[in-house]
Structures are given as C-alpha cells and as structure tokens.
C-alpha cells in the first residue's frame, strides 16, 4: 500500500511537470504553425501598409522604444527604492506601509493604470497619445515588480557579507556597491526580465496612452502601435489569426533576445563568482 | 604579578591585574548594553593588555559575543542597541569619536563562520586595502602575499589566488578570513568563536596561528571551548548572565578560580 501511494505521488508529480511543459509547447507550437508561413524579410523589416500584408517594422520599433524608456526610468528608481527599504530605512511602520503599497500596486489591473495614464500623462501633462505617455504608464506598472524582486534579492544576501565588509572599515556605500549589489544581481535581473515580460505583454494600458497609429513613430511624442496592440487589433478587425500569430512569433523572439541580453549584461557587470 | 581583589556589594568578585609590560590596550569601564528593554551587559569592566590573547568564556547567551562586538561597534548595526559606559582604546573613547571606519581598520574581526565574499581569494584579501584607496598592483600583491603568509595559508593557495574563495575548505576559508583581517594592518583582532565551525585539525591550525599572531597583535577571542581558552590565551574572563564573574591569568582561572561559579563552569558542571 505504501509503495502504491509512493507510485501515485510520483505519477502526479510527473504528470504536473509534463502538463506544464506540454502547455508551453502546444501554445508556442500552435503559434509557430499558424504564423510561420507569413514571416519573411519584408514582414519584419518592411513598412506597414493597411492594405495587404505590410511589414511590422514600425511596431517592432515602438515596442523596443517602450521597453527601453520604461526600463531606463523604472530600473534605477526601483533598485534605489528597494535598497532604501531593505538596507537603510529603519524597519518600522512607514516601511511596512510602503511595502504594503507596493504589494497592492502589483495587484491592480493594468486597465486602471491605463486610465490613470490617459488622464494624467496624456491630458494633464499634455503629452498627447504618445510613446512617452505609454512608457511612463508602463514605468509605474513595472516599478513595484522591480522593487519587490530587488528587495527579495537583497534579503537573500547573507548578513555575514555585510558584517564582513563593514568590519573591514568600509563605508555602507562601499559595502553596497562592492558586495551586496553584486551578490543580489541575479535576483535583480530576474525582476528586470519579469518587467520586460510585463511591458511587452501589456495591451490595455498602451492602447489608452499611446493610441493605435500604425506608422513609424517620429519620436517619443508621437502616437504609435506596439506589437501586442497590433496583434490584438488585426485579430479584432480582420480576424486574421495567421497574421496575429506571426506577430506573436516576433514578440516571442524579441523577448528571448532581450532576456539573453539582460543575462549577458549582468554577467559582465557582476564580478561575483559563486 | 599582583592582583587586587575588589569585593563588590552583590558579592561578585573581580580581579584586576596591575599594568604589566605590554600596557593596557583596551580599557572598559561600567559598560551597560541594552537590546531594546532587555539588558545584556551589566557594568562590565575589563583591561585588555597589548599583544596578549584574552579569552572570553561563558555559557551561551552570557553576553561574551555582545561584549566582543561592542569593541568594534558592530552592535551599531542592530536596531535598538543602547550602550552606556566607556570603552577606551589607546585612551580614546570609541563611542565618542564618530570615525567608525578608522576604528574598524584598527580593530579587525574574524567571525564565527567563515564569511568570505563570493570573489577570488586574491580579491577577498585585497578588498579592504582597495576600499582604503590602494590601487597600485604591486602594493596590493605585496599586501596579499604578506597577509596570506601571516595567516599561514600562503603555500596552500598561492597557485589558485584567482579562483573563487568559496571553493576552499572551511578551515582554509577561516584562515583566509584571518588574512583578510590582517591585510588592514590592524592592531587588535577580535575573534568570535573562530573555530566553532571547523574540524579538529583545522582548529589546531587556527590555534597555532593565534599563538604566532600575538607577537604582532592584541587578540580577543570568544570561545565555547574551554580547552581552547586554556591553550591559546594569556588571560581569561568568565562571563555569566551579562556580568564578568572573574578575570585573571588563564592559569589561575583554570587551576584556582576564586569564584565558585567559575569553578563550576570550568570543571564542566554547567555550561
């Protein structure tokens, strides 16, 4: 009987693991199967035309813009905030409140952020429907993600490293730069990768703040369309699943490349070797 | 060596050594320490002499580590710690000066568990000097070699200085920790149960090292292991419930303790 239970548990564990992988393979496989036919040089690098199968280069550029701008603002602010909360702030009521606030922020549906962005960045600050308005909205969306993951990463740095460094007559800042941040780098990086996923996956908030103009943006103040929004619109307007799937493939590849790049950069930055 | 015994009201006896050749390096008076509302040290007074090994013994939670950590102000890192009384090092009150950095370069520390950073052996030892602004490669090389030799580990690691320090055995890591402390050219080295995580052979090596180091450094060592205190130290202070019960030559503490509680502890009746 005990043996049977053991086998049963093993079977369940194996089935769960298999299911997870299977779902991933099926989804990615289906999208590749549907969309792969459409992908050629012109599809990726050609300019867009509303009639017929134009390229999606403007949407790729817009997507990269939003990722780049949001991350360049959110990463330093997020890391600094997490360092403050974890390393400098006195652990009291204020810190608990800030932590509670960041946690709540992660749980808010993105459409709420979109509405806020539309009112604040687009209208009040008069940015208009634009890449910058969307990027700033996305910054707010990913900020709590980066703060949380960085905090978790800082928590995993053993207290003995801090003590060891400070006991050698170093300043708190030196300890932070030379020992704590390098050790926390892998965790911070996973936060950034998660953020890239959130940014790329976002549609509602971008829809409301950047608009849907399907043309090469003139700059960060022009309205534009990201890949995700594009994918959504072509499905909705023309029901062209194949085209949407092809856009999906490009999205997946972009995320893979960015994740690889992030890992590579952090390995160069992070001299700590385990 | 004459000792004067001061009888205190509460019956605690305390021996104070007269100054001897080395001179007093650390002078502690009336030290009270609180963690929040909880008092951890009661009116601790102690003279630690230059270029000697002073052992702090006592059961768990008696305040010996807390006391050790107040000597380089590591307790500052803990929220809610309050300290009153005087700790003078070379006649300077370390809690009145604001230069903790300078204090900690003068008073090095080795911890209970080896706590090398995830870097190469070389970078670990060069870490402190680099943070002090030493950039010259030649100078750093010299400091690293000298420190590792000083910690009796140079021969074991000289061919793998650039490999991760975390690949060394526990005992080797602890000696590199000692080298890392030596690299700052401190005058005092605090050791918080440095061998409690090590095997007997590594422990022996570290003890030999301590015996050799005392010609250059003033060493204060916390230990759980009474044989270790007897082997390595010149003077021993016995802590109990946040107080120093007895402080004397190590030989006296172990062969003819004056206080019954000291005797009970060193003979293993509790602890």
Automatic annotation (TrEMBL), chain A:
Location within or outside the cell: Cell membrane
UniProt KW keywords: Cell membrane, Membrane, Transmembrane, Transmembrane helix, Transport
GO molecular function, one term: phosphate transmembrane transporter activity
Transmembrane segments: 12-33, 56-85, 97-121, 127-147, 179-200, 243-265
Any one of the GO BP annotations: phosphate ion transmembrane transport
Gene3D superfamilies associated with the record: MetI-like (1.10.3720.10)
SUPFAM superfamilies tied to this protein: MetI-like
Span of domain ABC transmembrane type-1: 60-262
Gene Ontology CC terms, in alphabetical order: plasma membrane
PROSITE patterns cross-referenced by the UniProt entry: ABC_TM1 (PS50928)
InterPro entries to which the protein is assigned, alphabetical: MetI-like, MetI-like_sf, Phosphate_PstA
Membrane topology annotation: Multi-pass membrane protein
Pfam families attached to this UniProt entry: BPD_transp_1
Family per record: Belongs to the binding-protein-dependent transport system permease family. CysTW subfamily.
The protein's name in its UniProt record: Phosphate transport system permease protein PstA
Phylogenetic lineage: Bacteria, Bacillati, Bacillota, Bacilli, Bacillales
Gene: pstA
């Amino acid at each position: 009987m005990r043996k049977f239970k053991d086998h049963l548990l093993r079977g369940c564990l194996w089935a769960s693991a298999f299911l997870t992988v299977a779902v991933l393979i099926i989804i990615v496989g289906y999208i590749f199967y549907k969309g792969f036919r459409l992908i050629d040089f012109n599809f990726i690098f050609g300019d867009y035309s509303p009639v017929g199968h134009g390229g999606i280069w403007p949407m790729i550029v817009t997507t990269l813009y939003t990722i780049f701008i949001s991350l360049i603002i959110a990463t330093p602010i997020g890391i600094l905030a997490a360092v403050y909360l974890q390393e400098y702030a006195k652990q009291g009521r204020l810190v608990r409140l800030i932590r509670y606030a960041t946690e709540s922020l992660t749980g808010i549906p993105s459409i709420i952020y979109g509405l806020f962005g539309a009112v604040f960045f687009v209208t009040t600050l008069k940015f208009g429907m634009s890449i910058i308005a969307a990027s700033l909205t996305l910054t707010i969306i990913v900020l709590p993600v980066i703060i949380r993951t960085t905090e978790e990463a800082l928590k995993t740095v053993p207290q003995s490293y801090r003590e060891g460094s400070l006991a050698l007559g170093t300043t708190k800042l030196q300890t932070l730069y030379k020992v704590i941040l390098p050790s926390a780098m892998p965790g911070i990086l996973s936060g950034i990768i998660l953020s890239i996923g959130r940014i790329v996956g976002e549609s509602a908030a971008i829809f409301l703040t950047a608009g849907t103009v399907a043309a090469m943006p003139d700059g960060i103040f022009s309205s534009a369309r990201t890949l995700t929004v594009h994918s959504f619109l072509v499905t909705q307007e023309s029901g062209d699943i194949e085209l949407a799937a092809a856009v999906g493939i490009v999205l997946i590849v972009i995320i893979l490349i960015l994740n690889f790049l992030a890992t590579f950069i952090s390995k160069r930055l992070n001299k700590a070797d385990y | 060596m004459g000792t004067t015994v001061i009888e205190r009201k509460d019956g605690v006896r305390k021996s104070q050594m007269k100054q001897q050749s080395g001179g007093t390096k650390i002078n502690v008076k009336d030290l009270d320490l609180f963690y929040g509302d909880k008092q951890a040290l009661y009116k601790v007074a102690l003279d630690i002499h230059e270029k000697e090994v002073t052992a702090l013994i006592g059961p768990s939670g008696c305040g010996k580590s807390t006391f050790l950590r107040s000597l380089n102000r590591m307790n500052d890192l803990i929220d809610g710690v309050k300290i009153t009384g005087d700790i003078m090092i070379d006649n300077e009150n370390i809690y009145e000066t604001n230069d903790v950095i300078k204090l900690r370069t003068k008073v090095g520390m080795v911890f209970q568990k080896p706590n090398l950073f995830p870097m190469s052996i070389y970078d670990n030892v060069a870490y402190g000097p680099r943070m002090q602004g030493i950039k010259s490669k030649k100078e750093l090389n010299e400091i690293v070699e000298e420190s590792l030799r000083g910690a009796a580990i140079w021969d074991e690691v000289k061919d793998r200085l650039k490999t991760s320090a975390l690949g060394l055995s526990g005992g080797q890591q602890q000696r590199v920790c000692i080298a890392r402390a030596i690299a700052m050219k401190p005058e005092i080295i605090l050791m918080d149960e440095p061998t409690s995580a090590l095997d007997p052979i590594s422990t022996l090596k570290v003890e030999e090292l301590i015996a050799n180091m005392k010609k250059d450094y003033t060493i204060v060592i916390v230990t759980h292991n009474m044989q270790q205190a007897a082997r390595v130290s010149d003077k021993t202070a016995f802590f109990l419930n946040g107080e120093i019960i007895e402080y004397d030559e190590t030989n006296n503490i172990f062969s003819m303790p004056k206080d019954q509680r000291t005797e009970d502890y060193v003979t293993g009746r509790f602890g």
